Amino acid sequence: MDFFEVLRNRHSIRAFKKKDVEQEKIDIILEAANLAPSAGNLQAYEIVVIRDQERRLALAEAALNEDFVAQAPLNLVFFTNPRRSARRYGQRGIRLYSLQDATIAATYAQLSATALGLGSVWVGAFYEEPIMKLVNAKDDLVPVAIISIGYPDEEPEITSRRRIDDLVHDEYISKPYKYTPSRLRLSRPTW
Q1: Is the pTM of this model over 0.70?
Q2: Which CATH superfamily is domain 3-156 in?
Q3: Cα–Cα–Cα angle for 7, 115, 28, nearest 5°?
């Protein structure tokens, strides 16, 4: 699947088949996350792989009882590591760069899962404290995303997106961008 097909085919999947994700695919996803750009190449994030059923149940409970988190055979929990970024960037590294590093790595993982024929969903609603206890995280780490991954057991409807000329601005917020659709037909239906 080429890069633009990956972008078109990535959808939030919340139903997974009862099939484990092969170790080779997990390793490829983690290698891709490791390739993500980061501020000063500090990679101010940590990733915890959760496959054990009991731990997935606890993770799902922390994620506001979302059953699909427990159903997914693989969950990657992304944490910011603000102290790692603070060494070079101080408060901006703590507040922003470590968060950007973690979320970019999570995005790379999610797109890689799609490229490998897997489904995934980004989970951002959860209680931090139970997740930190579940993985024995130090107090200076902050969970920012759970990526639930597995073989899809649903075909979700294609969701519409904002129009590009509504979303993108030319030089100033008040000036719309003059958009001409590409021949690649990357866009989804707009509203």
Answers
A1: yes
A2: NADH Oxidase (3.40.109.10)
A3: 130
